[in-house]
Design goal:
With 301 residues, the chain is mainly β. The chain has a single domain, classed as Neuraminidase. Helix content is 1%, strand content 46%. The chain has one helix and 24 strands. It has a four-stranded antiparallel beta sheet, with no helix packed on it. The two termini are 17 Å apart.
Length: 301
């Protein structure tokens, strides 16, 4: 079985869903070119699926939350002869409530966990052995690490978005860079339009792009571009058809994909957002989508 045999076509959109099809959990696929859609995987350990990422060989990684049957888990989905096999890469240990996953240039896997070590943490996981290493962790109740999304910059820097902590005077929501060697944290941008950042991605120009579930007037959510050096925030789009946007990805041409589980007719929806104009257009919506939790686009090559 060669690597190319199990790759989905470039541009295919993959969507993790925590409770699709009778609350089984699954991963949907959609080809924007042909309109073909279906399940890449369903059931098994996928109930409670959260983040999604792609390895260099085309395998799909999905995190699973402990609040569903089983513990916090990192799964690998391998497509062979038209069927998808689920294997556990790593489970439990420091994995408590993993919400996002990304792959580093050397193939190591990063997982953002809201409640790991009690204060939240970013973990590095060996893709072969499943060994977990805590890279960065919250220090105290007044300095928690509340990662809700993460991505990797071209130079290897790790970017996360943090929710405000559950303390009487919580720190503002913020965008943070984590040193991939020391785990040291540096705040890139804080407060401003950020109210409830839930996911983050790097665009083709190296900008940090954040989707926020409650930003702007009316708490309808939006997309915010953050300068990776100055931290300056620029609104890409806000309100419109959004209700509570949840996850974000970038297509090959730079167009943004944003999921929203309560948009329009209160059905889960995937929007295309023009990064220059902020125009929102529906790409795909409705059943069998139930609770979309992550989105990823299959790259070329």
């Amino acid at each position: 079985m060669t690597t190319t045999d199990r790759r989905l076509p470039a541009g295919t959109v993959l969507l993790s869903d925590s409770s699709t099809f009778g609350c089984q959990g699954g991963v949907h696929f959609f080809d924007p070119t042909t309109g073909l859609r279906g399940f890449f995987a369903m059931g098994g350990d996928l109930v409670g699926a959260t983040g999604i990422a792609l390895e260099a060989d085309g395998n799909v990684l999905v995190t699973k939350d402990r609040h569903h049957p089983g513990g916090g888990t990192l799964l690998r989905l391998l497509r062979v002869d038209g069927a998808t096999k689920q294997t556990v890469v790593s489970s439990e240990g420091s994995l408590v409530s993993p919400v996002a996953v990304a792959v580093e240039g050397d193939g190591n896997i990063l997982v953002a966990d809201l409640f790991s070590k009690g204060m939240g943490a970013v973990l590095r996981i060996d893709p072969v052995t499943g060994e977990q290493t805590v890279l960065s962790v919250g220090e105290s109740r007044t300095d928690p690490l509340r990662p809700c999304g993460l991505c990797v910059e071209a130079d290897g820097g790790i970017v996360i978005v943090e929710q405000a902590g559950p303390v009487p005077e919580p720190p503002a929501p913020q965008v943070v860079r984590i040193d991939p060697v020391s785990g040291a944290r540096t705040v890139i941008s804080s407060g401003g339009s950020l109210r409830s950042p839930v996911d983050v991605v790097i665009d083709h120009h190296g900008n940090i792009v954040v989707v926020d579930a409650n930003a702007f007037e009316g708490f309808a959510g939006g997309v915010i571009k953050v300068d990776p050096v100055s931290g300056r925030q620029t609104t890409v789009t806000s309100g419109g058809s959004f209700d509570t946007p949840a996850a974000i990805a970038v297509e090959a041409d730079g167009t943004l994909l944003v999921t929203d589980n309560k948009a329009l007719t209160r059905e889960p929806t995937v929007f295309r957002v023009d990064p220059a104009t902020g125009d929102q257009r529906v790409l795909i919506m409705g059943p069998p989508f139930t609770s979309l939790s992550g989105v990823k686009v299959v790259p070329a090559g």
